[in-house]
TrEMBL record:
It holds the Pfam family GAF. Transmembrane segments: none annotated. Residues 242-295 form the PAS domain. It comes from the Bacteria. One of its GO terms (biological process) is cAMP biosynthetic process. It comes from Ornatilinea apprima. This is Guanylate cyclase domain-containing protein. Signal peptide: none annotated. SUPFAM superfamilies: GAF domain-like, Nucleotide cyclase, PYP-like sensor domain (PAS domain). InterPro entries: A/G_cyclase, Adenylyl/Guanylyl_Cyclase_3/4, GAF, GAF-like_dom_sf, Nucleotide_cyclase, PAS, PAS-like_dom_sf, PAS_fold. SMART domains: CYCc (SM00044), GAF (SM00065), PAS (SM00091). Belongs to the adenylyl cyclase class-3 family. Residues 395-525 form the Guanylate cyclase domain.
Amino acid sequence: MNDSQQETTFEDLCQRIDALLVYAERMQQFLRDNRPASMPSVIFEGVESMALQLPKIKKKAGLLAAEQNRLHALAGIGQVVNSSLELDVVLEMVMDTIIGLLGAERGFLMLKNDAGSLTMQVARNWERETLEASEFEISHTIIQRVEAEGRAVLTTNAQEDPRFTGQQSVMAYNLRSILAVPMNVKNEMIGVIYADNRIRSGLFTQKERDILEAFANQAAVAIENARLFESVRRTLAEVTELKNLMDQVFASITSGVLTADVQERILLCNRAAERIMGIAAQEMIGMNLGDLFAPMNLCLEDPLIQVLKEDEMVVGLETSSDLPERGRVDLRMSFSPLKDFQETTRGVAIVVEDLTEKKRLESQRQLFERMVSPRVIAQLDPNRLRLGGQKAEITTLFADIRGFTQFSESVDAQELVAVLNQYLAAAAEAVLCEEGTVDKFLGDGVMAWFNAPIAQADHTLRALRAALGIREGISRLHAKMPCEQWLGFGIGIHVGEAVLGLVGTEQRLDYTAIGDSVNTAKRIQEYASLGQILVSQDVYERVRGSVEARPLEAVLLKGKRDPLRVYEITGLC
């Protein structure tokens, strides 16, 4: 039955009651004026009673009709509230509906957040305008009671209600008619609806409370639906963004990536796969894996069986072959099952790494590591390195074990080598800590230099620190070995120009330094006694003020015509 039909029925009923009332009044008047003596008094009393009851019946009918109209309107409002999935729209609809239903001055809707606390979502007035935060003058006591008890709270005049005597918000904001109800979804409270009037008392009754409770539960479902829709939409946006990101990542991966179905037909490939295989994507997609890898003479039968039939990964399958578009290539491939969300294997994913350039560089690196310390290699710029002889100023350090020959006569060969390696390792470590280059081990000695192949502004000071480091390393070594194995170094250092370059044969190459300055450092070392660090005049002049040193008498070094002044380094300033 629609609204117009309800109104017609009620109007028709009212007309019939009015007609009866007129008839009863006329009958009553007639009986008063012309009451037959034979008429029983019960008839007269009945007419009198009907005349009195008809207005009451009319009033009750009006109340019932109004209640029916209100319930019908509530059902219609539920449809309106559920007509949108936009959360903000739903919240405003709910609030405007509440104010319209109750005739409230203001309405507030609070929802629980992720932390379980109630937060204000929307506040509206009777003119359907959004209230500012400064206008949130509500009774937090009533809201807290609804939240705690999960039941509606109704007061016709909060100013006189003993339950709220002394509550500051009630008194301060002059609150009167207040109705607050919980919003429940599946027996779980998700929020509170609060309506009030600060002017009129007795605005809300038990009927308004029942109506608002019924509506609140409808509104709660609508809000949850809107929340779910918003969550789904947000998730969809995140998934879309993630997919776009994955597409970008997939396209930018430097390794080639191919996917194929269980029939081994290629479904997808990235740009790196195009570059590595030398074939455009549109040509690869739809191609059989066997045909793609046929030029490599690579048999994929076993790895594909292992992946597609046995559901296992194949990692690190390497091949070296000629490709029509690229020539000789070195590739490493890994195969893994391609699964759906039910963990069912739907194909194979292949990652192809191009090792061609890496292997070429690795070969060059292995060659160079035979000549230069790894720590220096890590700093080298291949674009600036020039092979062949090249003049450079370097600081050369020679360190030789004193007393090693005598010691070697008292121990067996195995112990001799073990002890020698410990001393040489200590010396090499001290040089490498200062980023020097260990040229070679000369029996029981070490040759090293600084300032090449990487330029070092303080190369001479680095050499001295390395020498002192050798001495400290020997002390630490002595602390953990028997005294009969105690040996020490004599160290010589000189600075000057030398020629650095590759020398040797194809089978054995050395990156070494040659020149008079290198020979001078060697001769100074031969003059040094156990534990001494001797340097030339040129070295001392460069580090004066940074080291502690004492001058020694000039010495005539082997192969030199004139005596050379030397200094003994005792420490750093």
